[in-house]
């Protein structure tokens, strides 16, 4: 595993690179930490060049600032990493808020995306008017206004199935706790306002797959994936487990990502040399 800092506009992004083969960029959600994906990155490094990173302002990366963080900036950061570390083209997997960033990247910078897997984007604005799930971001924002990051974090965790049933790596947990004000104070408005660019995504020149975990049926972060897939006319798939299945059970989750990413990359017959030997 190679690690370092990558300079982007106004920040330096901590990143890790593993393996060889087609580039696969993994984008994390709330907390923005590369450590979420350590397990699946190790699993996939035999077939892919796996790139993980701490998103701007999170954990070991710089660039917090005082202003709200918009999704266009997040997408530009991802594009810069693909240009600088992957030769200008990569498969992309995003989980939760990372899936929202992946959808934004795919719409704004399609030239650098070879395929997108968007896992459980909490894009509640695509749900019907009057759906109680549409209040999620506002309710957490109110908790932050009243009680700060600890109160917002508790409420957030209570909405995510499976959290509290397994232990996070200690170093990841410590970094996550340090990211609370950035998440709820600066990143939250961008995620809350997100609507997918259906026109751009429906004509994307690469495959897109939406998906959600088998244990998350009916949740505010699973149902939008079905609606987005329907609106832009792409496949929807069921993944194993919970929202962050890749933390407690990385091998099984990585197997699902492996199948999709391999199919996306080889759909035009462009089989990497490493798979021909």
Helix content: 40-55%
Low-confidence runs: none
Number of domains: 1
Distance between the termini: 23 Å
Order of helices and strands: EEEHEHEHEHHHHEHEH
Instruction: Let me know the average pLDDT.
Output: 95
Radius of gyration: 17 Å
Tally the helices.
Answer: 9
User: Structural class from helices and strands?
Assistant: alpha/beta
GO molecular function: triacylglycerol lipase activity
Keywords: Hydrolase
InterPro entries: AB_hydrolase, AB_hydrolase_1, AB_hydrolase_fold
Pfam families: Abhydrolase_1
Summarize the structure.
By secondary structure, this protein is an alpha/beta fold. Helices cover 40% and strands 17% of the residues.
Layout of secondary structure:
Blueprint: E1 2-8, E2 11-18, E3 23-27, H1 38-44, E4 49-53, H2 71-85, E5 90-95, H3 97-108, E6 113-119, H4 136-158, H5 170-178, H6 180-193, H7 198-202, E7 208-213, H8 223-232, E8 236-239, H9 250-266
Parallel strand pairs: 3-4, 3-5, 5-6, 6-7, 7-8
Antiparallel strand pairs: 1-2, 2-4
Helix pairs in contact: 1-9, 2-3, 4-6
Protein name: Alpha/beta fold hydrolase
Domain AB hydrolase-1: 22-186
Keywords: Hydrolase
Describe this structure in words.
- By secondary structure, the chain is an alpha/beta fold.
- The chain is 40% helix and 17% strand.
- It has one domain: 3-Layer(aba) Sandwich (Rossmann fold).
- Strand 1 and strand 2 form a beta hairpin.
- The chain is globular.
- The mean pLDDT is 95.
- Keywords: Hydrolase.
């Amino acid at each position: 595993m190679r690690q370092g800092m990558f300079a982007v506009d106004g920040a330096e992004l901590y990143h890790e690179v593993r393996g060889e083969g087609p580039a696969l960029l993994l984008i994390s959600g709330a907390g923005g930490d590369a450590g979420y994906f350590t397990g699946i990155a190790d699993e996939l490094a035999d077939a892919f060049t796996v790139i993980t990173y701490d998103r701007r302002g999170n954990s070991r990366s710089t660039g917090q600032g005082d202003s709200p963080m918009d999704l266009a900036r997040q997408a530009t950061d991802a594009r810069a990493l693909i240009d600088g570390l992957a030769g200008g083209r990569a498969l992309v997997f995003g989980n939760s808020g990372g899936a929202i960033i992946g959808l934004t990247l795919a719409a704004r910078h399609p030239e650098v995306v070879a395929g997108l897997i968007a896992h459980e984007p909490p894009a509640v604005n695509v749900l019907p008017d009057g759906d109680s799930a549409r209040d999620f971001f506002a309710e957490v924002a109110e908790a932050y206004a009243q009680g700060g990051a600890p109160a917002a974090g508790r409420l957030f965790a209570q909405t995510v199935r499976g959290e509290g049933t397994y232990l996070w790596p200690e170093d990841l947990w410590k970094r996550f706790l340090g990211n609370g004000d950035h998440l709820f104070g600066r990143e939250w408005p961008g995620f809350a306002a997100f609507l997918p660019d259906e026109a751009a995504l429906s004509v994307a020149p690469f495959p897109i797959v939406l998906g959600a975990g088998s244990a998350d049926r009916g949740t505010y972060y699973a149902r939008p994936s079905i609606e987005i897939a329907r609106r832009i006319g792409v496949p929807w798939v069921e993944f194993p487990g919970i929202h962050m299945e890749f933390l407690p059970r990385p091998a099984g989750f990585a197997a699902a990502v492996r199948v999709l990413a391999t199919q996306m990359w080889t759909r035009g017959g462009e089989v990497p040399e490493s798979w021909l030997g």
